[in-house]
Amino acid sequence: MKWMRMLAIAASTFCAAFVAATPPAVAQQRGGTMVIALSGEPSALVGFLHTDTGGHSIAANIFSGLVGLNEDFEPVPELARSWEVSDDGLTYTFHLDPNARFHDGVPVTAEDVAFTFNDVVAKYHPSRGSWWPNVESATAEDEHTFVMKLKKPFPPLLTLLAYQLRSGAEILPKHIYEGSDPMTNPANEHPIGSGAFKFVEWSKGSHVVLERNDDYFMEGKPYLDRLIFQFIPDPNTRILAFERGEVDFIDYTAVPHNEVARLAKDPRFKLLTGADAIAVQGMWLLNVRKGPLAKKEVRQALAYAIDVNDISEKALFGAGRPAHSFLNSNLKWAFNGSYDVYDRDVEKANQLLDEAGYPRGGDGTRFTINILWAAGRPYDGKSAEIIRDQLRDVGVNADVKTYDRPTFIEKVFDQWDFDTAMQLYSTGPDPAISVVTRYHTKQINHSPFTNAMGYSNPELDKIFDEDASEVSEEKRKENWDEAQKILMQDLPAIPVFEFPDGHLANARLMDAVTGPYGYFQSRHNAWFKD
């Protein structure tokens, strides 16, 4: 259909094709345990409670979505075996696999899907405000037919549903959650989904264990017996465990970049690289609610005071690229890095700070801010330290503070108790999905990875809202050109680096990454070669 073709064309334009492992020449072998190292312990294992990648790397194996994406960014079946989109782009009809069952044996029906969207996603998911208001209805037409109707066309909808981190479209069992407060339901600690692996154990502070689901609706899968997610915040300990064979996979957010070149040459390991759908940026978030950071001129001064080239080189050991926009340059159709590129200019930074009403005091200091970062991600810590050192040249004192990841998320996104913070932000596979949720006024809420900065610009909101239903790629390019211009002038955050892709894996591990969301995808395809 026209809309399906449009989605496929758009998706292939958003990012280059993902380079995955070559399909195996021999039959997949069964058995074995895949150990995955995470840089920190997630706060939850169910997707509607958060948008944290660590939690989703586990949840993606427990729960199933309606659709997924293949390595060519095309929608592929999961719980929905097939679907149709109306010619006007407003009605999506999904036909569910009748063999799908939850881990307790109860069949998955369209009622479960409707309940997930209407009673959980629509009320609790952190990113719901960026897309759910456009949903007219989400209903079960019969036992295995689910229909979603939109108020206005939204071409990236299938891509959004496949991006479960952002949509929350991991289907929950209605019979377990109905009549309860989903936020406090005991099943959040012992989740029951319909995915390839069943929950076994969550040993707080240590690991999560999942085991093979023998009744998985994808026939013959998964191949592995179990998955273990090991929480290893210290990067040196993490890489040592990998070299000892105690860990089989480290996703690209947890890879110690100073070790990549050495390990990639070791025949025991392999580096899985390619264009990643998420198009991640390292961002320096600025709380614009009060104090010096409430003034745009001060934020611009801070951008002139730092050297993103130096930060990118040192924090990522040359593996990343300096960022010059709120979009990653991998999003070639939308990226524009020509607006207000803040090359380091200490003189201009000092001038802006003087004009903003923040002169140096007797000790040479203008004001003090904090920089928060989450333990387990050394590139964020190194970035914070470099920024602190560079800000001294303009009389700004920075206090660098480190927290474990759950505490960091609570302070920054729930309590808004920060001046500035280091955080990775996705900008793909479509900025209408990922970027809007960071900077739209409606996304100022106490939820993880939304607009914690308190930033609001009605002109930008209007562009975001109009772009959501725009089908012309030329017009969408114009929209995002203007959006980047506004963001680079207002600076609710400062783009620092474009994050490199590249997952480290045991050389025997096959098909660990088979799609564009490689670091939080289901491992139903993964297997070990003798």
Write the layout of secondary structure elements.
Blueprint: H1 2-14, E1 33-38, H2 53-62, E2 67-69, E3 75-77, E4 80-85, E5 91-96, H3 110-124, E6 135-142, E7 145-150, H4 157-162, H5 164-167, H6 174-177, E8 197-203, E9 207-212, E10 226-231, H7 235-243, E11 249-250, H8 260-264, E12 269-272, E13 280-286, H9 296-305, H10 308-315, E14 321-322, H11 346-355, E15 367-374, H12 378-391, E16 396-403, H13 405-414, E17 420-426, H14 431-434, H15 436-439, H16 458-467, H17 473-490, E18 493-498, E19 503-506, E20 509-510, E21 527-528
Parallel strand pairs: 1-10, 1-11, 15-16, 15-17
Antiparallel strand pairs: 2-3, 4-5, 5-7, 6-7, 8-9, 9-10, 11-19, 12-19, 13-17, 13-18, 14-18, 20-21
Helix pairs in contact: 9-11, 10-12, 16-17
Could you walk me through the main structural features you see in this protein, from its secondary elements to its overall organization?
This is Peptide/nickel transport system substrate-binding protein. Residues 74-441 form the Solute-binding protein family domain. InterPro entries: Peptide/Ni-bd (IPR030678), SBP_5 (IPR039424), SBP_5_dom (IPR000914). It is built from 17 helices and 21 strands. It is an alpha+beta fold and 530 residues long. The strands form 5 sheets. A 7-stranded mixed β-sheet has the order 8-9-10-1-11-19-12. It has a 6-stranded mixed β-sheet with strand order 14-18-13-17-15-16, with helices on both faces. α9 (296-305) packs antiparallel against α11 (346-355) and α16 (458-467) runs antiparallel to α17. The longest helix is centred in the C-terminal third of the chain and has 18 residues, at 473-490.
